[in-house]
Amino acid sequence: MDKQVPVDQSARADEREQDGVREIMADLAYQRLAIANVAYYGRVGAGDGQWVLIDAGVMGTAGPIAGAADHRFGTAARPAAIVLTHGHFDHVGALRELAERWDAPIYAHVLELPYLDGHASYPPPDPSVGGGMMATLSRFYPRGPIDVRPWLRTLPADGAVPGMPGWRWIHTPGHTPGHVSLWRASDRTLLSADAVITTKQESAYAVATQREELHGPPMYYTQDWTAAKASVERLAALEPKVLVPGHGRAMQGPVMRAALHALARDFYRVAVPEAGRYVARPARPDESGGSYQPPSTQ
Questions:
Q1: What range defines the domain where residue 185 resides?
Q2: Which of 23, 35, 150 is nearest to 93 (CA)?
Q3: Cα–Cα dist 278/269, whole Å
Q4: Which of 4-13, 24-33, 138-147 has the lowest mean pLDDT?
Q5: Mean confidence (pLDDT) of the chain
Q6: Overall domain count for the chain
Q7: How far is CA 167 from the centre of its chain?
Q8: Contacts of 99 (CB under 8 A, 6+ apart)
Q9: CA-based, 20 to 30 A from 144: which of 12, 117, 152, 273?
Q10: pLDDT tier at 265 (50, 70, 90 boundaries)?
Q11: Integer Cα distance of 140 and 23 in angstroms
């Protein structure tokens, strides 16, 4: 069964695209790089230290990210921070290169630090779920650890997001232990990262075509489905006007919100695989910061 919550083109966010960067509003844009999005906070021409990069794409994308930043914020303008929603390979691929280039602090949730300080690798993905090529190939994806300790910082405990006044980080675990989403209440803008996405990430065809759909987190990399459901419920309760995901196109409006509530309500039917490595037994961090790995079901 194709697990999804369908939406139509009316849910597409209003955006202006230039050189692959899609501006959602005056101070927020995103860029699709291969299989994942990065986001840029800050106004055009903001200058040195006046903008923030959210996530860092796949390996080999440091050049496109730095080029887009130069164009949007000013040549050689460095960010105030790099904020990570989580540490999977498709969100940290250019992280070390960009941190070195800009000497920028990297912020992540405390539960995500073991995967960013060289201490722990994520548990293995589950290529048996989702029924697509991206899922099948997941056994070959890098799962760390990476080590960016010289720049690594913990997100403030009070929920503030460094360099992004008016924004809050929300702990949305399930896909990873320290996964976060970013929320601005003043205009109800949500960066959902991988807690909620708008493409079937397990399918190479869907990733390529970017058809409008609403999905839970990528199945092959989600470690705790009970936590993932609670995270979707938390985000749906915010009633966002605009949603910018870690995979897929940005969406907005009442059709998007209705689909988000449907995803939360029917999560076990439309988002969770019928069987798989982590469906019955989630992988959770142990006391050392690593992860418990239940036996393979394959």
A1: 5-270
A2: 35
A3: 16
A4: 138-147
A5: 89
A6: 1
A7: 16
A8: 82, 106, 148, 150, 151
A9: 273
A10: very high
A11: 33
Higher pLDDT, 286 or 194: 194
Return the structure tokens found at 296. Answer: 């393979």
284 within some domain:
no
Are the beta carbons of 126 and 120 closer than 8 angstroms?
no
Characterize the bridge pairing of strands 106-108 and 152-154: parallel
pLDDT above 60 (res 295): no
Residue 203 pLDDT greater than 70, yes or no: no
Instruction: Count Cα atoms within 13 angstroms, Cβ side, for 230.
Output: 12
Contacts of 273-276 spanning 24+ positions with Cβ under 8 A: 273/3, 273/126, 273/128, 273/129, 273/130, 273/219, 275/128, 275/129, 276/126, 276/128, 276/129, 276/219
- The token duo for 5 is 């919550």
pLDDT in tens, 81-97: 999 999 999 999 999 99
Which pLDDT band holds residue 285 (cuts at 50, 70, 90)? Answer: confident
- Tell me the β-bridge partners of 39: 30, 54
Q: What CATH number is given to the structural domain containing 76?
A: 3.60.15.10
Decide if 218 is inside a domain.
Answer: yes
State what percent of residues in the chain have pLDDT above 70: 86
Helices (H), the chain: 62-73, 89-92, 95-102, 133-136, 204-209, 225-236, 253-265, 267-270
**Residue 134 lies inside a defined structural domain of this protein:** yes
- Both structure tokens of 235: 């985000």
Q: Give the model's pLDDT for residue 293.
A: 55
62 in a structural domain = yes
List the beta bridge partners of residue 180. 171
Residues 6+ apart with CB under 8 A from 280: none
Amino acid at the residue 24:
I
Sheet containing strand 180-184, edge to edge, reads 167-171, 180-184, 189-193, 242-245, 251-252
Structure tokens at 182: 């970013």
